[in-house]
Amino acid sequence: MEVYLDNSATTRVFPEVAELMKKIMCEDYGNPSSLHMKGVQAENHLRYAKETMARLLKVKEKEIFFTSGGTESDNMALIGCAFANSRKGKHIITTQIEHPAILRTCEYLESLGYCVTYLPVNSYGQISTDDLCRAMTPDTILVSIMHTNNEIGALQPIAEAGALIKRMNPDTLFHVDAVQGFGKARIYPHKMGIDLLSVSGHKIHGPKGIGLLYIGEKVKIQPLLHGGGQQMNLRSGTDNVPGAAGMARAAELLYQHYDEDLERLCQCKKYFMDGVRKLEDVKINGLLPGKSDGEGTAPHIVSVSFGGVRSEVLLHALEEEGIYVSAGSACSAHKPQPSATLKAIGVERRMLESTIRFSFSVYTTIEEIDYTLQVLYDKIPILRRYARR
Amino acid sequence: MFTAFLIKYAEIGVKGKNRYLFEDALIHQIKFALKKCEGKFLISKTQGRIFVEAEGEFDYEEAVAHLQRVFGISGICPMIYVEDEGFEKLCDTVVGYIGDVYPGCRKTFKVNARRARKNYPKDSMEINADLGEAILNAYPEMTVDVHQPDIMLTVEIREKIYIYSEIIPGPGGMPVGTGGKAMLLLSGGIDSPVAGYMIAKRGVKIDAVYFHAPPYTSERAKQKVVDLARIVSRYTGPIYLHVINFTDIQLYIHEKCPHEELTIIMRRYMMRIAEHIARETECLGLITGESIGQVASQTMNSLIATNEVCELPVYRPLIGFDKEEIVAVAKKIDTFETSILPFEDCCTIFVAKHPVTKPNVNIIRRHEHNLDEKIDELVKTALETDELIIVE
């Protein structure tokens, strides 16, 4: 049995999406910038993709910009806004548990003379709006907060943060990295005070190599890529028509059965967590107090620490049984780099190297979870017996 | 501009009546090395020299890089070759050659003609003098120095005429395959690929065995070993890599034997298994990357313990090397970058905090009896499930 529980890493492409993309690549392969019929066909696909994404986010079409993925979206939001607004100030606020696409970009900006505040999180992986309030200065040009944490599934108080920022300084821009959150939660930038929003195609059963950045129409931003002037001169480069169309179709399909799917994901997560708790010495990370069913966290991510088992070994042991997961922290014998997120939420030292992330999708079934639990019940005691002494 | 190579070999030259065997092996290795290069090559052996002639377009840098990896070659002379179209034409060619290879330089030179085809109208001395004159006329800034010339221009008159003056060092050693075959214990580390390279350099064909311990070592760790074997195979030719699943043996030792002796006992079983495969595949010895005192299992006492379990000789070419010296070779042969990728190999998992450094062989043997119940069966299974990967 093959059970793919690594959907936070990437997802299986919906067959309808692959079909549409194949048609575009083999038949409607024109360049939207070309003046002839082939170009027009391609442009129609692109326009439809833009309309769809704008509709799902309840924003204007001209506020949608296609990129090569989440990393480019994050880079463009941070660097583009920092450069365009450096006259107003050089202070940026983000959190300690962001994705490396944000953290490394912030470090880059620091090397250019920008000042970055990294907000701490509590043991559930959430920032406090009080901390945010205290960190804001008249120099703060940008706040960047992730919607859903990719390692533990913690959700941030995005709407509150958006309102707070706009109340304190209407000029401060608010970027949200929704690479893990889009499709799992309803996110409406206009209502939540969000000025920039990053989304990735391959996390929502679309293709790799495509993402989008929502840029509010009043936002001052500079392009990262210069060239042929596509996408209103903000993101040059031949439009990735199959990618954009594929991502939009995937998003459309997700939103068709949004409520039922979400309900099922939550059930899967709860069922899985109940099963995992039957094992001794395990801890599920990032759950809110009193919410053992996972309420208030991402519906598709469960981070579990298995005491006395090295995550890499467990990962490969599960792999032998056809189950694919991620190690909660990228550790190796030669280069120990415990996960910043797990450290930030105060996971015990001995558990840091024993954490596995299970992440579900609309394809995940209860049978798959039963199978996974059974394999865990079989393997964990054996692996514990042979731990390093 | 160069169209051919003269291959010089060092050690083969001193061989006696079986010299042709070494030469044929070298030609075979050269053919194999050039097969992966752009272009077509004609390789011939005449009067104790090997010529590689390019037929049409080829990538000079690539061909030289590949030849530099063929053991047995001491030097590679890039040449041009022309048909014999009279002496005047030859003068033009030689003058053109000097102009192309040494543009605008004011160096001393000497012409060294060799007349293998004795019916050529001029003798060597005449050729030397007349070609020298032609060069001096064309490049007045150059001078002749017959004792220590900057440029030693050799002109060989055979069926065709070959002109060369440069020599690029080769790797030395002996052609792979002339020295038998040995089994390399290949881990993912820095040392074992270097050990394989060094023994192969003496003309030995290499097979390899890797001990895989899923789920404790990952598929990527195995891929890393395959990648290392692939880099080494650029020098040695195809490597038959045996992948042995070692997990159950390792767990069984872990369960039954004192923890500080785990690594030693584990290595004894690795040697036993490697020797078994070696004998089945007609290898004449084992190769390891051990160096005295590098780690607990490589002290002289530990080497006694791992050495005594096999009868075949164990070649340890790095035995007197420091780590830095090994690293230098690893960098030279391009295995270093791959070796340091951070994946666990089966020697690092379960390793004790304080493993024995001076194991007593009698005690080790006694503790190995703890394994009597199941170990033969486990070893048999491991050998039966040997996965063979042909790496080239």
Offer a few descriptive terms.
heterodimer; A: 389 residues; alpha/beta; Aspartate Aminotransferase, domain 1; Aspartate Aminotransferase, domain 2; 2 domains; 7-stranded mixed sheet; 4-stranded antiparallel sheet; 13 helices; 40% helix; globular; B: 392 residues; VC0802-like; Rossmann fold; 9-stranded mixed sheet; 6-stranded mixed sheet; 39% helix; elongated
Quick recap:
Helices cover 40% and strands 15% of the residues of chain A.
In terms of quaternary structure, what is this? heterodimer
State the low-pLDDT regions of chain B, or none: none
Structural class estimated from helices and strands of chain B = alpha/beta
Summed up, the domain count of chain A is 2
CATH-level-4 superfamily name of the largest domain in chain A: Type I PLP-dependent aspartate aminotransferase-like (Major domain)
Elements of chain A, N to C (H/E): EHHEHEHEHEHEHEEHHEEHEEHHEH
CATH architecture of the largest domain in chain A: 3-Layer(aba) Sandwich
Can you walk me through this structure?
The complex is a heterodimer of chains A (389) and B (392). Helices cover 40% and strands 15% of the residues of chain A. Chain A is an alpha/beta fold. Chain A folds into two domains: 3-11 and 258-388, Aspartate Aminotransferase, domain 1 (Alpha-Beta Complex), CATH 3.90.1150.10; 15-255, Type I PLP-dependent aspartate aminotransferase-like (Major domain) (Aspartate Aminotransferase, domain 2), CATH 3.40.640.10. In chain A, the strands form three sheets. In chain A, strands 2-8-7-6-5-3-4 form a seven-stranded mixed beta sheet, sandwiched between helices. The two termini of chain A are 33 Å apart. By secondary structure, chain B is an alpha/beta fold. In chain B, 39% of the residues lie in helices and 21% in strands. In chain B, β13, α9 and β14 (314-315) form a beta-alpha-beta unit.
